[in-house]
Amino acid sequence: DEPRLEQAFAALGVGHPPRARGAVSNSDNNTGGAPQPQGATHHGGGTRGGGRGRNDAGVVVLAEVGARRGSAVAAEEPAAAAAAAAAAVPQADSEACLPLGQAVAACWTDDQTKQLAGMASLRKLLALETTPPIREVLNTSVLPRILQLLGKSNPNIQFEAAWALTNICSGTTEDTEIVVSAGAVPLLITMVDASEVGEQCMWCLSNIAGDCTKFRDCSIRAGLLEILTSLASRGFTGVRSSVSAERPASSVCSNTVHALCNICRGKPAPCIKPDVSLFVTAVSRVGTEESMVDLLWAIAYLSETLVDLVIHSATTLSFVIKHLSHPNMKLLVPALRTIGNIVTGTKLQTQVVLDAGCLPLMSNLLSSQKRAIRREVCWAVSNIVADESDQIQRVIDAGLVPKLQEIMCYDEDTISKEACWALTNAITSGRPEQVRYVSRKPLRVTTNCG
Known about the structure:
With 450 residues, this protein is mainly alpha-helical. The chain has helices at 4-11, 78-88, 100-107, 112-126, 134-139, 143-150, 155-168, 173-181, 184-191, 196-211, 213-221, 224-233, 249-264, 276-286, 289-302, 307-311, 314-322, 329-342, 347-355, 358-365, 371-384, 389-397, 400-410, 413-429, 432-438.
């Protein structure tokens, strides 16, 4: 017999011992990848195998989560940050807009008609598509007045004030820090509900929490998670005042889950334990696909340090696993990331996801046309088979070994090495009959390698 498996190992230079669950290979630490957002990232560096550098595989595009409202732009990329912020804020309309000086003066009057015109003009200026004058507005010292008007009883003025704050907080970290230092967070949290004003306040809080871990933790301490949980428990309905119109539950759901996603992200991990199953149930009823994406990423972030929070909820785990077969990559990727995080944990934690039926779906993903998906699955399997013969048998029974063999022999190097790790770990940790099966001559199967 041609010892193709051994030749492949030798050709790839794999002569060192297999990795334990979640261990970091030195060769994986220098793979590059995009700059990471300040204090808010779901790539690399974690304690549960995140340091394997999965971002360089291109599995995740960070702008798809958080940055749609200017909440997760990278401090290392000021040009990209400005572009993301401009794209994230609501666009200015064609109605009359007062010049900045007149708008500020109108806000300081006691006439509510003038106040509304002034706040609306500030909002429109801050929503300009290119180079919104965020710092110019802040330099006028109008921020305290914006906060005063936000706390008043006129819902139209409140809405414009909340919208203006949202646009300011889609700028730089320095811009957001001025808003936070002015005491905006506690005030915004007291106003969050399912109304137009409350939803806009939540949008602003989401931007603040997504900017950096400092502001994330400030929002958490002020009670943002409790407010989000309360909204989810009411099905994203309910307003504090009858003078403010209620927003559709699907829209409130979108903003609530986006805020949840932002307070779950970042290094170091936040000190929170949200009731994930509550959010899964509520979002499944009224949420859009966008809300599902944000919720799956929130779960993925939590699974980096709080695996038990995910696996001890059958509702949450089944929600994650069912999206392993979803055709939309935006839903599939965070679900796969969560499974990958879990299997870098203990044997018992890994066993829970195996018992939940993830292996047949992962076997299908090894035939994905997306090379990043194939690599991510190989990475996860290498941890599943690291040190438990019964779990190795589950992988064998699910039909993953022939596909791993083909990927190792025929796929591109970065993916081939991950498959090689999986097979190496199975050979090292398996029983004699398992070693013979895994070491047999590979057969050509129908994957999408190369």
